[in-house]
Amino acid sequence: MNGGVLTIYGDSKSGNCWKCQWVAEQMRVPFEWVETDSIGGQTRTEKFLALNPAGQVPTALLPDGRMLAQSNAIMLHLAEGSRLVPSDPYERAKMYEWLFWEQYNHEPSIAVRRAQLQFRGKSEADLDPALLTKGNACLARMELQLQQTPYLVGDALSLADIALVAYTRVAHEGGYDLSAYPAVNAWVARVEGDLGVKSEAA
Amino acid sequence: MNGGVLTIYGDSKSGNCWKCQWVAEQMRVPFEWVETDSIGGQTRTEKFLALNPAGQVPTALLPDGRMLAQSNAIMLHLAEGSRLVPSDPYERAKMYEWLFWEQYNHEPSIAVRRAQLQFRGKSEADLDPALLTKGNACLARMELQLQQTPYLVGDALSLADIALVAYTRVAHEGGYDLSAYPAVNAWVARVEGDLGVKSEAA
């Protein structure tokens, strides 16, 4: 047990962890943050693996002491029934589509380049050039949508925006040039404003 | 418009596409299947990209003509409110956890090795050995859960099982030896039985 309060094991350099922090704040759910350095190996200790066998942050301990992992699953659980989850079934499904696309396409290119360059001591020359191409294709896909709608799913902020803004707002740290994507750039500022998050823009 | 019937653009070699077919069948939702060869390039044509800018299968056209992508999002939409989505909020969140983990960890190791070996003409020697290690870590993580519960989330079939059985049942085609994971092996047969799907076991 953990005293009846949500505990988030998170790495404050990780966009996946920011997502959970932001949604807890939006939902006014009190939480304790346990700083967990994933690159330094704190997610691979015996103690951490007993908590989450996948060895990943964020990992949440819910107020009743039960474990929940995967950033987007934690967000969905905290935000259930709120304005961050569209009530229209089709819009809700499109939100899911963006959430899965984020984990399958966006994070493995945009977040991975940032981690390699900023935290793992790699230089541009060390990296697979295909990663830059894939990340730019993701940004182009978002640009296409955001030229049509102010948020990824229609007219209002949803978990889709929170999931995707996390690593998009620091994409420059992965060597991406957001100025080529004006609608994405404007959306980052819009979502950061909604969340009350300070810009990390270069 | 598409005549008021669900249309699934799918590749019949793809586990991600099987998921949608199985859930439509379970829900008794009539659908049309449009065979779309992703490795042969049919997801990269101008016409297909106009339908789904992400250029991926499965892509669904809902009965009202609107597009929905990402296998797990399509499953969630088709199965909403059914027995395949746990009604308990914590169990539902754990189902989401497995769904995101499937796309982030399991599919990129287990499905990718199968695609390289079976459909892209690669041999074992061409592949990054880390991929085999990562896939086996995924199977070990599932084994740990399935030694405790008959399904990934407790006592009943859910979308978590459907998502994860898709590529696990053909893991041997990616060079994985499922006999090392007896609880996973038994679960594959159990879920295939529930879905009325013929075994692909070697």
Task: Describe this structure in a few short sentences.
Chain A is an alpha+beta fold. Chain A has 7 helices and 4 strands.
Description:
- The structure is a homodimer.
- With about 200 residues, the first copy, chain A, is α+β, with helices and mostly antiparallel strands.
- The first copy, chain A, has two domains: about 5-80, Glutaredoxin, CATH 3.40.30.10; about 90-195, Glutathione S-transferase Yfyf (Class Pi), Chain A, domain 2 (Up-down Bundle), CATH 1.20.1050.10.
- In chain A, about 50% of the residues lie in helices and about 10% in strands.
- The first copy, chain A, contains seven helices and four strands, in the order βαβαββααααα.
- Chain A has helices at about 15-25, 45-50, 70-80, 90-120, 130-145, 160-170, 180-195, and strands at about 5-10, 30-35, 60, 65-70.
- A four-stranded mixed β-sheet of chain A has the order 2-1-3-4, covered by helices on one side.
- Chain A is globular, with a radius of gyration of 17 Å.
- The N and C termini of chain A lie far apart (about 40 Å).
- The interface of A and B includes residues 69, 92 and 96 of A.
